[in-house]
Specification:
- This protein is of the alpha+beta class.
- It is built from nine helices and 20 strands.
- It has two domains: about 15-245, Rossmann fold, CATH 3.40.50.300; about 245-365, Nucleic acid-binding proteins (OB fold (Dihydrolipoamide Acetyltransferase, E2P)).
- It has helices at about 5-10, 50-60, 105-110, 120-130, 145-160, 175-195, 205-210, 230-235, 240-245; strands spanning about 15-20, 25-35, 40-45, 65-70, 75, 90-95, 165-170, 195-200, 215-220, 220-225, 250-255, 260, 265-270, 275-280, 285-290, 310-315, 320-330, 335-340, 350-355, 360-365.
- It is elongated and about 80 Å long.
- The two termini are about 45 Å apart.
- It binds adenosine-5'-triphosphate.
- Adenosine-5'-triphosphate binds near residues 22 and 27.
Length: about 375
C-alpha cells in the first residue's frame, strides 16, 4: 500500500490531551491540536478561557499536569521528560514584547542568532529588515521608533533564528487600528514565506478570521470547535460559537416530529427527540425586512418561510450598516436586523420580517 505524503510527514506541532490545573481548578482541559508548517492556527476565546496557559505550555515556560507536546513527530515534553524552552526552536511574540533598549535594531534582530558566521548573520538580519520594510532603521535604537516600527523589528527578531514554531499572544493589541491591519497582513505573509507553524492567541474574532487557516474556539479550558474560519462561522457547534462572532437572534420552540414550529414557519430539527426545547439561532443580517403595504403580508416562500409582523423599537446607524430592533408577537421576542448603509425607520413603524432559513441553526437547550 502506498502512503500519501500527508500521512508520512508528522505535523510540525502536535499537542495531545494537555491539562493544567491552578489551585485545584482545571484551566486547560484536555486540549489537543495539530499545526502544520506554514499554517496559522488561532486559539480564539474569551478572557480567562486558557489560551495563554496553553501557549505557555507549548513554549515550555510552564509545565502541564498531563498530556504531551510533539514537534516534527518528536516528543519534547510530557510530565517526566522536558526539552527546555531555549532548545525548542520556538519563537515568541507577545503584546508587551520588549526590544533591548540599549541595542540597535540590527543587534536586536541578530541577538538570537547563535549559529553561523558573521557574514551569514549580517545577511539574515538585512534580509529580514528589508522584508519588514525597516532597512532604513538598521542603526536606530528602539526609542527612536514608533510602536508599529518596533513591532516589525520584534517580528524580525523572533523570526531571525528560523524558529520551527511561532507563538504569538495578542501581538497586535497594543497597536492602533490604522496600523494594525497593515502589520497583521505583512506579518502573515512573512510567516507564510518562512514556512513557520504559528499558534496565535486572540480574543478578537475579526483578527482570527483575518489571520487563521484554522480557528480553535476555546471556552472554559476546552476547544469547543476547530476548523477553517468559514466552517466555524457557517457551521457553528453551538449557540456560543454563533454569538462569539456576531450578535444573534434567538427563537425558542419545542420539537415535534423533527420540526420546531414558530410563527416564521417550521424549522428542521433532524434527530432531535419530540418534546425537546430548542433554540433557533440566527444572525441579524439574516433577518429580512419588508415594508407593510396596507396591512397585507408578503407571500410566504420556501427560503424565508412565513412573514411575521414586527414593530420597530429603535434604529441606529453604526457606520457601515444600520441596526433595527423589532418587537414581535412571539414570547416577548426582540429581533435585530442589520442592513448595509442608512436605514432608520421610526419607532412604531410596522414591517414584515422573514428569516433566511438556510442561515439558521437549531440547538437543543
Ligand atoms: P486572557 O485573554 O485574559 O489572557 P486567557 O484565555 O489567555 O485569558 P489564561 O491566561 O490562560 O486565559 O488563564 C486561564 C485561567 O487561569 C484564568 O482563570 C486565570 O485567572 C488562571 N490563571 C492563569 N495563570 C494563573 C496563575 N499563575 N495562577 C493561578 N491562576 C492562573
Amino acid at each position: 500500500m502506498t502512503e500519501t505524503l500527508e500521512q508520512t510527514v508528522p505535523p510540525r506541532l502536535e499537542i495531545r490531551n494537555l491539562v493544567r490545573y491552578y489551585e485545584g481548578r482545571v484551566v486547560v482541559d484536555d486540549v489537543s491540536l495539530q499545526v502544520q508548517a506554514g499554517e496559522v492556527t488561532c486559539l480564539l476565546g474569551p478572557s480567562g478561557c486558557g489560551k495563554s496557559t496553553t501557549l505557555r505550555m507549548i513554549a515550555g515556560v510552564e509545565m502541564q499536569d498531563s498530556g504531551e507536546i510533539h514537534v516534527d513527530g518528536k516528543l519534547i515534553c510530557d510530565t517526566v521528560f522536558r526539552v527546555p524552552p531555549e532548545r525548542r526552536q520556538i519563537g515568541l511574540m507577545f503584546q508587551d514584547f520588549a526590544l533591548f533598549p540599549h541595542l540597535s535594531v540590527a543587534d536586536n534582530v541578530s541577538f538570537g542568532l547563535t549559529k553561523g558566521t558573521k557574514d551569514e548573520k549580517r545577511k539574515r538580519v538585512s534580509e529580514l529588515l528589508e522584508r519588514v520594510s525597516m532597512s532604513h532603521y538598521i542603526d536606530s535604537y528602539p526609542h527612536e521608533l514608533s510602536g508599529g516600527e518596533q513591532q516589525r523589528v520584534a517580528l524580525a527578531r523572533a523570526l531571525a533564528p528560523r524558529p520551527r514554531i511561532m507563538l504569538m499572544d495578542e501581538p497586535f493589541s497594543g497597536l492602533d487600528n490604522r496600523l494594525r491591519d497593515g502589520i497583521r497582513d505583512e506579518t502573515l505573509s512573512l510567516l507564510k514565506e518562512e514556512d513557520t507553524a504559528v499558534v496565535l492567541v486572540t480574543h478578537e474574532p475579526e483578527e482570527a478570521m483575518r489571520m487563521a487557516d484554522r480557528i480553535a474556539l476555546m471556552r472554559r479550558g476546552k476547544i469547543v470547535q476547530i476548523g477553517a474560519p468559514y466552517n466555524v462561522y457557517t457551521r457553528p457547534a453551538d449557540k456560543g460559537a454563533v454569538s462569539f462572532f456576531s450578535d444573534i437572534n434567538v427563537l425558542r420552540s419545542k420539537v415535534n416530529g423533527a420540526l420546531a414550529q414558530t410563527p416564521f414557519g417550521a424549522f428542521l430539527a433532524p434527530g432531535v427527540p419530540d418534546g425537546t426545547e430548542v433554540e433557533i439561532v440566527f444572525r441579524p443580517q439574516h433577518l429580512k425586512m419588508d415594508f407593510d403595504r396596507n396591512g397585507q403580508s408578503p407571500d410566504p416562500s420556501p427560503s424565508t418561510g412565513v412573514p411575521v409582523r414586527g414593530v420597530v423599537e429603535r434604529a441606529r446607524f453604526l457606520g457601515h450598516e444600520s441596526l433595527v430592533e423589532f418587537r414581535v408577537d412571539y414570547g416577548d421576542s426582540v429581533l435585530k436586523a442589520t442592513v448595509p448603509n442608512v436605514f432608520l425607520p421610526n419607532p412604531g413603524r410596522v414591517m414584515w420580517l422573514t428569516i433566511r432559513r438556510d442561515r439558521c441553526f437549531v440547538f437543543p437547550v
